[in-house]
């Protein structure tokens, strides 16, 4: 393991080392993880947000980061992070392009391929496409990552190091990122929908809201911890806790008879298809300028 400054030492140059374009929830989660874990000093992080100047002041007050004066600050950065909405990416990258000269560019913009990103910046940076999920906000998320061709080993290590400050990192072929968007990106929403149903049922069984919520969350968190710590598959753990003709078996029979697995598969397929569709819409509507 290495630190950011070990691989990219500051020397005597007081330049920004990380430049974020965008200051939304994902940018803040990234900043929080990096600062809290000491991967970078706050004064090494520059943030630019065109439409909400007050937002930059809030991030400065909370984390000590530096509000960037303009896109020119990106020229001195070792890593540039694209944290804008996909619909705003084309204009943002067109304006950013003159200040790129081989830096590492990490994109949080959903649906935008590495090929499109490289075209938008005139191949002036090493591009990493990512799909983080909601739990990165509490440093317990997972980020799916795909690297463009010709990204160096050092840049791969650097990208992983930064992204690991907010959770696990899983590398994959870019062709799987739409599926990752459906699975881990939309997954928290799907899990919460199932938990909503469990919580409603708990209240029908007679629990008050506070008790139902406590039982629910600790059950879910504990089960996830068992799976992680014991390195078990969900199927194996399910079999271990299911006694023949017991209570778990009775409930699982209802799930099986109702076709739950089929519904889950259809939901994931629909989400993946929508991710691919959205990417095509943005790439068609917002082509980079020549």
From TrEMBL:
Pathway, per record: Amino-acid biosynthesis; L-proline biosynthesis; L-proline from L-glutamate 5-semialdehyde: step 1/1
Keywords per UniProt: Amino-acid biosynthesis, Cytoplasm, NADP, Oxidoreductase, Proline biosynthesis
Residue ranges constituting the Pyrroline-5-carboxylate reductase dimerisation domain according to the UniProt record: 174-278
Superkingdom of the organism of origin: Bacteria
Stored Gene3D superfamilies: NAD(P)-binding Rossmann-like Domain, ProC C-terminal domain-like
Database matches in InterPro entries: 6-PGluconate_DH-like_C_sf (IPR008927), NAD(P)-bd_dom_sf (IPR036291), P5C_Rdtase_cat_N (IPR028939), P5CR_dimer (IPR029036), Pyrroline-COOH_reductase (IPR000304)
Reactions that this protein is recorded to catalyse: L-proline + NADP(+) = (S)-1-pyrroline-5-carboxylate + NADPH + 2 H(+); L-proline + NAD(+) = (S)-1-pyrroline-5-carboxylate + NADH + 2 H(+)
Subcellular location: Cytoplasm
Molecular function in Gene Ontology: pyrroline-5-carboxylate reductase activity
Occurrences of domain Pyrroline-5-carboxylate reductase catalytic N-terminal (ranges): 20-111
Pfam families per the UniProt record, alphabetical: F420_oxidored, P5CR_dimer
Main subcellular location of this protein, as a coarse class: cytoplasm
EC number: 1.5.1.2
Coiled coil: none
Protein function: Catalyzes the reduction of 1-pyrroline-5-carboxylate (PCA) to L-proline.
Similarity field: Belongs to the pyrroline-5-carboxylate reductase family.
PANTHER family in the cross-refs: PYRROLINE-5-CARBOXYLATE REDUCTASE, PYRROLINE-5-CARBOXYLATE REDUCTASE 1
HAMAP family in alphabetical order: P5C_reductase
Protein name as annotated: Pyrroline-5-carboxylate reductase
UniProt organism field: Alicyclobacillus tolerans
Upper lineage: Bacteria, Bacillati, Bacillota, Bacilli, Bacillales
Gene field: proC
